[in-house]
Amino acid sequence: MARSIKELMSTDCVTATLLDNVYELAVLMRDHDIGFVPIVDGKKLIGIVTDRDLVIRGYAAKHPGSTAVSEVMSSDIKAIDADTSVDEAAMMMSRNQIRRLPVVENGNLVGIVSIGDLAVRDKFADEAGEALSGISRQDADDTQQHAYH
């Protein structure tokens, strides 16, 4: 039987709430050397903010550092259950072109799994490689499309 994400996920998640602002998220990302912050209400996962979200929806949209998290967060969350298999998680990452997946139980954030988590385990190197390959192909396609438009 395939191993579950529960065995690989990080459980020491840095999170923020709707009470935080864009500046506070940037500081969290800097201080913890991360580019992804789940937004929670208590323990319930309600959104995600990436470093790209801060740039595109925040600073490039001329929003000041005091702008509310809700202005830059993605609420269309791709998440998985802790019992999801590594294969399923890798396929989901590839299909959705994402490098990190929140892990939830009953809507509550319990962890995060990343491409790196898959790659550091020799047994899962193929799954990580396939997911990253799918993501990289999409990134290259996007870059080429932007170059011509």
Automatic annotation (TrEMBL):
Keyword DNA damage: no
Keywords for the protein's UniProt record, in alphabetical order: CBS domain
Domain CBS: 9-65, 73-130
UniProt entry tagged with the keyword Ribonucleoprotein: no
InterPro entries found in the cross-reference section: CBS_dom (IPR000644), CBS_dom_sf (IPR046342), Diverse_CBS-Domain (IPR051257)
Protein's UniProt name: CBS domain-containing protein
